[in-house]
Amino acid sequence: MTLFVRIAIAALMLIYIVPSQAQEFQGIATYRTQRKIDIKMDSTKMNDALQNQMMEMMKKQFQKTYILTFDKSSSIYQQEVELEKPQIGGVDFQMIGSSGGNDVFYKNVKDQNYIDQKETMGKKFLIKDSISKIDWQLESDTKYIGEYLCFKATYTKQVSKPNLDFSNNSENEEETQDEPEMIERTVTAWYTPQVPVSNGPAKYQGLPGLILEIHDGKLTIICSKIVINPEDKIEIEQPTKGKEVNQKEYDAIMDKKRKEMLEHYAPSRGSKDGAITISIGG
What we know:
- By secondary structure, the protein is α+β, with helices and mostly antiparallel strands.
- About 9% of the residues have low confidence.
- Helix content is 15%, strand content 40%.
- The chain is globular and about 55 Å long.
- Strands 10-11-13-14-15-1-3-4-7-8-9-16 form a 12-stranded mixed beta sheet.
């Protein structure tokens, strides 16, 4: 049995879960995210207890729950409201550019565009841009996620090697001015034709069914719950608040903020005390 035949058989199961009014098809999917982090600290001023506390707080920063509300053509992806932010020593801790609870990611898979409303360091941005096409390779592997039969898909991309170095030692100062080292990464997705939308969490989309699981480097996103055609009708509205920029402009702003943070928190030149190396992304 070929892969496409198996997908077609799975798609036939839609008659049991999708009403005849396809234009009214809506859903709510809950996702949990987790990102592995690597922290190396070399500091005589930071004891083990503080290092452990920092590690736990950073882990919590990357363990979140998101809600994807969707119809056949559009969606809203937003973090579930949290009671409080992670803290270290009584100070709020949040990575520059990290997603906040008020951020809203709107995506239209029909028109192939998105609007990402973000609040960073007290300032709101409205990022408007086109969806980048993903060259998915459909694989023959299958598995169940809950009650949904899922199919595997992969693609490869070039990413910069993650290495955020706070030590600012003089010998590596020139290296940071060079182009970042690039590495190849394979992204794996699991999607189900039983939910007939070419959508998924965050910027992942473009498959013949809802994406329920993503493995992208150190980032893992897994769907834990799906509600098809909830009793209360879903209203999907584009976010409108914030300074309007495109993705390239926003990335440049964030890169500048990160460099400012590195300069502010780095130890004095030539000093090895207080060096902290954090590898996050990826």
